[in-house]
């Protein structure tokens, strides 16, 4: 009789599972780490194939014209390019795991040292640009949504949509050239290129953040309008709570979930824009080095920089996912 009742309870509640399987946080962590491993493996494969799929011969381009066949064979042996493709891939993955990214074919300098020297300037302007995007887009989008809620102040809606749409449509590279022409060449207010002081940061950061700020501000406005129509916001306004409590405590956490999600999606565009913008302003970062390496067919350097930028994007997306799970655990973990 007891066994029949136990079987009935198991049938109603489903099969018993181990505690670690039933934990939503462990499931969330396992799936996110699994995605990170798969994405990292894909990135390693693509960056490895990059050296073999690009047109031209990087070994011949690194040697003087008319180099002998023996010298070419010796260079290939030095770089390990005379091995089979699977053996080269195994060596490549092993070197990456040990922090060895190869040697520049053009200069003979370690790719790791090149990246270490050029990474800090890129991180500086990328981080400042990302913070600028949040500082501009978040309060602007929320303020316009609050002011234009329920069709009020219709005269503010059209200018906001036009300005954010126009700024967001300008490519970062073209915007950087325009900023140089206006503020450096014509007005002579800011330096044209290089990293010479605080003033030299202004134009690169504006070029990187202007368009993305426009896109994000429009998204924040739409998300805020949706949140403002929720029942709990109506209740908070009916209680005549302060503006800070109404919008800061009740609306902002729900808006941040969408903002972080969109910000994670914008990150690859910000990284790609950094490469182009650095070239315009001769910024001594990874972007300028990447363009120079491509022109010189120094594909070992290209390989290392692309791999590093890809890893930065993957890790940052993982951090965004964890932040979303901490802000809104139920919906974030359930979506896994």
At the fold tier of CATH, the topology name of the largest domain is: MetI-like fold
Shape: flat
Low-confidence stretches: 1-17
Helix content: over 70%
Order of helices and strands: HHHHHHHHHHHHHHH
Which characteristics define this entry?
2 domains; mainly alpha; MetI-like fold; 15 helices; flat; 336 residues
List the helices and strands and how they pair.
Blueprint lengths: L1 H12 L5 H4 L1 H30 L4 H5 L6 H11 L5 H13 L13 H37 L6 H16 L2 H15 L12 H30 L2 H8 L4 H39 L4 H10 L3 H29 L1 H6 L2
Description:
- The chain has 336 residues and is an all-alpha fold.
- Helix content is 79%, strand content 0%.
- It contains 15 helices and no strands.
- It has helices at residues 2-13, 19-22, 24-53, 58-62, 69-79, 85-97, 111-147, 154-169, 172-186, 199-228, 231-238, 243-281, 286-295, 299-327, 329-334.
- The longest helix is centred in the last third of the chain and has 39 residues, at 243-281.
What does this entry show, briefly?
Helices cover 79% and strands 0% of the residues. The protein contains 15 helices and no strands. The protein has helices at 2-13, 19-22, 24-53, 58-62, 69-79, 85-97, 111-147, 154-169, 172-186, 199-228, 231-238, 243-281, 286-295, 299-327, 329-334.
